[in-house]
Each structure stands twice: as C-alpha cells, then as structure tokens.
C-alpha cells in the first residue's frame, strides 16, 4: 500500500512510502483486538482500594450493653458494621488487576488495529521533523496544517524526541509515542495515526516477527 509523504505544512513532498501488507493490510482479528484493549485498560488500574473491616477499626471490644432485656438486638462490639463508625462488611481489598497475553496475540492485535485505520484512510505519513525548542504553538501549527486540530491524533516517532514530546504534552487530544510504545488501545483511541517517516521501518520490524 502506497501512501504519500507530507511535510509539516500539510503539503505533499512528492515522495511515497510503501506500507507492508503484512502489517497494514491483514484480515483484522476482532477478538485479538478486544483482548489486547482489555489487558491495556486492566493494567492501568492501581488496585489500591481498601476499606477497614471490623477487625481493623480502632475501638473498644467491650460488650456495649447486656445481652438480654434491652428490647433491642444484641450487640457485642462498637466496631460492628451495623453501627456508625463501625467496620465495613466485605470491603474492597488491594488487588492486582494485571493480565498477561502472549506476544504473538498482542502483535496480531496491533496489526489488526493498524489495518482498521488503514482501511478508514486514517493513517498519514509525515516526513521526519524536529523543533529547535519545546513550544506548544509549533506543534499546534503542525496539527492545523494537517487539519487535525479538533481531532484525536497519535504521532508515532522512530526515536524519542524530547522537543516534539514536550511540545505536545499540554494538548489533551494529541499524544506522541515511539514505535516501541505503540499499543492497540492508543491506535484505536485516535481519530488519526500520524506515522513519522522514520518510524515505519521500526513498526514493520517489530510486528513482522
């Protein structure tokens, strides 16, 4: 599949790159995509939720009233969940939500996601670029030139570029990652995926194994 290479002003450079059919034109596997997105979201959970149960509440353990003759239900401790300030019944406890998937399935899911974006014509190829200093306005100008200022965009770089990353960090609708940080969730969560020219070789190398 051939895609025209654009410059940061949104104009065609006259060059084209050939995207591998083994990565960008496979038969999408929806179940693999589902499993990979599910794993990504599960792994974002900290799992640090915790509430105190009756054994962990600070308070006296004395019997607060006699067993019989009060006309009310018996009560053995002020820490009972039935009383205000008492422990919680079966409260949440810390839990590890991380899930594991094998590498081949994750690779298939990412190729499926890229194929879906390619079919939607939502993949752009941008020539390699850099900024002299981190400046959000420079990155905003690139988005405007590409017509993406009001859309979610994912920029994929070949190597980490601190100036480009810092220039995009204040923008909620844009994210900059390297080809090794690419995930199925990030691909599908963006309206457009912008592949910087130098990232294509790395993406195809990572996903063609």
Structure described in brief:
By secondary structure, the chain is an alpha/beta fold. The chain has helices spanning 21-24, 30-43, 103-119, 136-146, 162-168, 184-189, 200-207, and strands at 2-6, 12-18, 123-126, 153-157, 174-178, 192-196. Helix 2 packs across helix 3.
What does this structure look like?
This protein is α/β, with parallel strands linked by helices and 209 residues long. The chain has 2 domains: 2-45 and 101-207, Ribosomal protein L4/L1 (Ribosomal Protein L4, Chain: A, 3-Layer(aba) Sandwich), CATH 3.40.1370; 48-96, no CATH class. The chain is 32% helix and 15% strand. The protein contains 7 helices and 6 strands, in the order E-E-H-H-H-E-H-E-H-E-H-E-H. The chain has helices at 21-24, 30-43, 103-119, 136-146, 162-168, 184-189, 200-207; strands at 2-6, 12-18, 123-126, 153-157, 174-178, 192-196. Strands 2-1-3-6-4-5 form a 6-stranded mixed β-sheet. Helix 2 (30-43) crosses helix 3 and helix 4 (136-146) crosses helix 5. The longest helix is centred in the middle third of the chain and has 17 residues, at 103-119. The radius of gyration is 27 Å and the shape is elongated.
Topology:
Elements: E1 2-6, E2 12-18, H1 21-24, H2 30-43, H3 103-119, E3 123-126, H4 136-146, E4 153-157, H5 162-168, E5 174-178, H6 184-189, E6 192-196, H7 200-207
Parallel strand pairs: 1-3, 3-6, 4-5, 4-6
Antiparallel strand pairs: 1-2
Helix pairs in contact: 2-3, 4-5
Defining key terms:
single chain; 209 residues; alpha/beta; Ribosomal Protein L4, Chain: A; six-stranded mixed β-sheet; elongated
